[in-house]
DNA sequence: CTGCATCCTTACCGATACTG
DNA sequence: CAGTATCGGTAAGGATGCAG
């Protein structure tokens, strides 16, 4: 994402006082455009590359490749490639990946619960602030 | 952030089956560079603009202004301006803002717990994939 | 089918100067 | 003190074509 520290240890200041609790890295992962969608889909079970691609409308092949690779790099997703022709690759959540997926689900629940309230707040704001984003 | 749908209702597909659960909007907010830091600081109590600025090293005035304004727009933060000279403005979390701050804290807890595991996974990955980000 | 390489547009964000 | 206005670097991500 836009922050991209790359190294998990390179944070000047975290939100937890003055020590780095690592949340920046997690947000750099799940905060990007496609990661949550991939994780939720993989939360339903093992998926092949093409299945993910069809299950997530709008994602490009390039972004699906990058997203799955980053998830693999962080140990959240496991990749299994069978040397067949044509190639066949399976993706599945690791235990730690499933635990993060659970957090994401809770966030999704929160979103569902407060979605309308936020929409209302924005409408209220926007009428009082024309020409604002 | 990079996604920026602006409208809370303009999502083709959410992670929850085929309906939009609004998580995209939440991630667009807390996924950006500074929002979590501001929320956690406000979680400690009422803060003035300058106090936030000093409490969050590295943030520019511009970004602090944008971040607080977006939080206000979503109804997560309340802004109180006193017409004194010099001006004085207070920011505090709304009830819904506090509830989101709680979710963020849980995510921070998760990060602390799994930080080392992720760092290890990255190291493992990087040794096997030189020249990769 | 699964990926990689390249070009290109968008917009996030930092730096700086200015206002009431 | 609490913003606003403007400029510019940079990285994310979309489109397209090629490869094993």
What does this structure look like?
The structure is a homodimer of 133-residue chains. With 133 residues, chain A is mostly helical. The first copy, chain A, has a single domain, classed as Winged helix-like DNA-binding domain superfamily/Winged helix DNA-binding domain (Arc Repressor Mutant, subunit A, Orthogonal Bundle). Chain A is 53% helix and 11% strand. In chain A, a hairpin with a 5-residue loop joins strand 2 and strand 3. Chain A is elongated. The first copy, chain A, starts with 22 loop residues before the first helix and ends in a 5-residue tail after the last helix. The N terminus of chain A is likely disordered. Chains A and B meet through helix 1, helix 2, helix 4 and helix 5 of A and helix 1, helix 2 and helix 5 of B. The structure holds a DNA duplex (20 and 20 nucleotides). Chains A, B: This is DNA-binding HxlR family transcriptional regulator. Chains A, B: It holds the Pfam family HxlR.
């Amino acid at each position: 994402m836009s922050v991209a520290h790359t190294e998990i240890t390179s944070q000047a200041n975290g939100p937890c006082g003055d020590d780095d609790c690592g949340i920046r890295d997690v947000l750099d992962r799940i905060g990007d455009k496609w990661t949550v969608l991939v994780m939720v889909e993989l939360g339903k079970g093992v998926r092949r590359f093409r299945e993910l691609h069809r299950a997530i409308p709008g994602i490009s092949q390039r972004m699906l490749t990058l997203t799955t690779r980053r998830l693999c790099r962080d140990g959240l997703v496991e990749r299994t490639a069978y040397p067949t022709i044509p190639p066949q690759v399976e993706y599945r959540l690791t235990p730690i990946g499933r635990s993060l997926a659970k957090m994401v689900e809770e966030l999704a629940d929160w979103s569902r619960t407060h979605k309308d309230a936020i929409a209302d707040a924005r409408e209220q704001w926007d009428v009082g602030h024309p020409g604002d984003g």
